[in-house]
Amino acid sequence: MLLHLRRILAGLLALVAVGVALMPDRGAVDVAVTARDLPPGVPLGGEDVRVVAVPTAFAPAGAVSREEALGRALVGGARSGEPLTDARLTPANPGVSSVAVRLADAGVAGLLRPGSRVDVVGAESTVLASDASVVAVRDGEVVVLSATHTAARRLAAETLAGPVALVLR
Description:
It is a single chain. The chain has 169 residues and is of the alpha+beta class. Helix content is 22%, strand content 29%. It has helices at 2-22, 66-69, 149-161, and strands at residues 28-34, 49-55, 96-102, 117-121, 127-138, 142-148, 165-168. The radius of gyration is 25 Å and the shape is elongated.
């Protein structure tokens, strides 16, 4: 009886081996991944990104190339080896800069997530930036925002004088 079961098992394993050998090669695609643990909001440099070949079936939707990733920032922290996709990176827009601002009300930081849209208000209810994007929240009181170059310069100058308020959209 045991000999009979061994022969059946050997036959099944042989069939599986033939099936695997006859499967079509689906190829591989190069995917940009993080080379080390990275925080959000920091522009990616050459040492932050590496390329790995993965089977086409396992490549994530929206995967970006190394060249597309360089210079852009993560919207959230990433562990070493995580694939980089368009959803994980800030927009590639040459007309946009990032700036860190200190909040007048640190409690607002708990309501913010990367990708949140905000208006920034300074002293005397002056709107310093409209529809800015949150890139990162640091230490509960500092927020990195992505805004136009002009608005980013205005925000940087205003935060030298004091904290700013955010209006969530």
